[in-house]
Description:
Blueprint: H1 2-15, H2 18-41, H3 45-64, H4 72-95, H5 98-122, H6 153-165
Helix pairs in contact: 1-6, 2-3, 2-5, 3-4, 4-5
Amino acid sequence: MKNARKTYLEQEVCTATPQKLQLMLVEAAIKNLHLTKQLWLEERFEESLEPQSKAQSIVAEILCSLDQKKSPEIAKSLASIYVFIFRRIAEAAFERDQKYLDDAIKVLMAERQTWKEVCEKFGTTRDTTEENSVSFESKASVPAPAALNPNLRKSQTQDVSASSQGRSWDA
């Protein structure tokens, strides 16, 4: 059963668009933080370290993947959000206070909703027979987020796939 789940997840990652990959990461972080809270309630503090660490690693991965060169304003704004989440998780672990986890989860839930809407608008899987192209037209002077740039689709998918081969983001 675990092998089938792993195969399914690998296939989903390989065919997912960048926005779907982002959504999957955010959902995995939320799932791991909820698991951490549950384990704390059961006073299984030793076991709670793994999901807490996974959530923090996911947030760190998202931070590292922000494209500072193509969209510096957006990257800076997103970085401040994910740094806040990262710090809240660290504070929660240090003080073992669920309030900090709740703060991180609340922000991640808002991010999840945003990425769900992006996925609904632009799709969640790549067309493997023909490269899809998505254009971003904006009246604003702010460029489209790097994670949604269709020119980065192939390399980002490879990066996420390669970086996730040695790790499991789910609980």
